[in-house]
Amino acid sequence: MENLVLIVHIIASLSVIGLVLVQHGKGADAGAAFGGGSSGSVFGVQGSSNFLTRATSICVTVFFCTSISLAFIATSKHQNSSSVENAGLVEKDSQVKTDKDSVSQDIPN
Question: Which of 16, 19, 47, 105 lies at a CB distance of 3.0 to 4.6 Å from 43, suitable for a disulfide?
């Protein structure tokens, strides 16, 4: 399960990076107005921004959900291992206390 979430997380992160790089900024139209090149694209001016904006928002949502999922998975793994270690430490402490009690009983008052 963790591997599946991790793969989806990596794909979503690469998609967000690619989609952000493909989009042109809001200042690109102002530069084109002064002769800085053409601001047209394959999808048209409005069509590409709507599609790319929606795709980016979907990928970002998936990225955040997988980030939270991976955090919960890591936390649950850490809690399970620490509770096992804590149980082992409690048993060791009780053994040490019984050893100390037996030593203190051997010493005459």
Answer: 47
